[in-house]
Write the structure tokens for this entry.
Amino acid sequence: MNGRQPFPQLVVRPVEAGDAERVRRLFARLSPESVYRRFFTLFPTPPASILHHLVAVDHRDHEALAVLDGDEIVALASWDRPARGTADAEVAVLVEDAWQHHGLGRALVRMLAGRASREGIAVLNATILSDNYPARRLATTVAKPKNVVFDGPETSFIYSLAS
Ligand SMILES: CC(C)(COP(=O)(O)OP(=O)(O)OC[C@H]1O[C@@H](n2cnc3c(N)ncnc32)[C@H](O)[C@@H]1OP(=O)(O)O)[C@@H](O)C(=O)NCCC(=O)NCCS
């Protein structure tokens, strides 16, 4: 990601249409818990609609960054605007189990937020399962949320990107 981080072999780049097979291989390595925490549902194999959406980035209303270890995607972070050109977007992050707790989620979310701000996004919303403590830890330490909304099994962290 850069020379100062402990995994210099890792590369971060925007997701490309040709990444579908890499994303499929990433899913094959994920635990059911990680799938559930990211998608709020379980599936034995990722539905084609989800795979398609993850790689169908337009870099404006839907953007995704991937961390690659060699030819394998080991982490993904994305934003989705609810409608074209809105000033808010939903952010989500997924780190392969074997790479969790090594700082990738934090680094990726920071990079994504920087890009989002440059694309005119003023508010990022992260919806997390309320019992997902690693994600809550990331959400509360990566930046100071301007609001936190508790809604039963889900908690939303809302961040202002305006400086
Ligand atoms: C949540 C997730 C993205 C965190 O990514 P990560 O790369 O493991 O997190 P980082 O290493 O950058 O750590 C970020 C913070 O979370 C904490 N954390 C990460 N994993 C943790 C764990 N298993 N237990 C406790 N704390 C944990 C870290 O300690 C760090 O906080 P700190 O700096 O105060 O110590 C990752 O666990 C994941 O992909 N989970 C499955 C999908 C998911 O839950 N996505 C979130 C909803 S969209």
